[in-house]
């Protein structure tokens, strides 16, 4: 009897997303590092995380990103995917977050609202917008 062995072609090398300007690549890698740290951290209630940040005068640069990554799973359906720092390929969740950060940095409230409404449960939209705007102020290039 003959057996058939499937041959798999090696995957082509991932390419950078065409919409991601170079300066945003550094922001994405910084956020990926924060996401790595938050994978092992306890998840935080979204409302409590936002309340803690808004009442703290001297917030660390990573505070908004840490709060977002600890709470994002609660706000969106499914488990968000963030790749290792330095990975050229973008996940859907990374592309969504970078687009939201770009909209926030450019003051494009309509685009930001659309992006948030498209992924985030209504009850969490205000808090996620707060965190994304905070990240845009802290991380985003000028």
Q: What is the CA-atom radius of gyration, in angstroms?
A: 17 Å
Helix content: 55-70%
In total, the number of domains comes to: 1
Topology as a string of helices (H) and strands (E): HHHHHH
Count of helical segments? Answer: 6
Q: Sheet with the most strands?
A: none
Helix/strand class: mainly alpha
Assess the beta-strand content as a share of residues: under 5%
Compact description:
56% of the residues lie in helices and 0% in strands. By secondary structure, the chain is mostly helical. It is globular.
Main traits of this protein?
single chain, mainly alpha, 6 helices, disordered N terminus
Q: How would you describe the overall organization of this protein?
A:
The chain has helices at residues 22-39, 46-54, 63-75, 92-105, 109-119, 125-139. By secondary structure, it is mainly α. Helix 2 packs antiparallel against helix 3 (63-75). The longest helix has 18 residues, at 22-39. The termini are far apart.
Q: What order do the helices and strands come in, and which of them pair?
A:
Blueprint: H1 22-39, H2 46-54, H3 63-75, H4 92-105, H5 109-119, H6 125-139
Helix pairs in contact: 1-3, 2-3, 3-6, 4-5, 4-6
């Amino acid at each position: 009897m003959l057996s058939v062995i499937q041959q798999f072609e090696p995957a082509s090398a991932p390419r950078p997303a065409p919409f991601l300007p170079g300066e945003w690549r550094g922001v994405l890698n910084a956020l990926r590092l924060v996401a790595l740290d938050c994978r092992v951290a306890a998840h935080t209630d979204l409302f409590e995380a936002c309340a803690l940040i808004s009442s703290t005068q001297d917030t660390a640069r990573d505070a908004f990103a840490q709060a977002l990554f600890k709470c994002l799973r609660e706000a969106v359906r499914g488990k968000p995917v963030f790749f290792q720092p330095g990975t050229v390929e973008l996940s859907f969740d990374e592309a969504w977050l970078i687009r939201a950060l770009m909209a926030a940095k450019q003051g494009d409230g309509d685009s930001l609202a659309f992006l948030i409404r498209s992924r985030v449960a209504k009850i969490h939209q205000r808090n996620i917008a707060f965190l994304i705007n905070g990240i845009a102020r802290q991380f985003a290039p000028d």
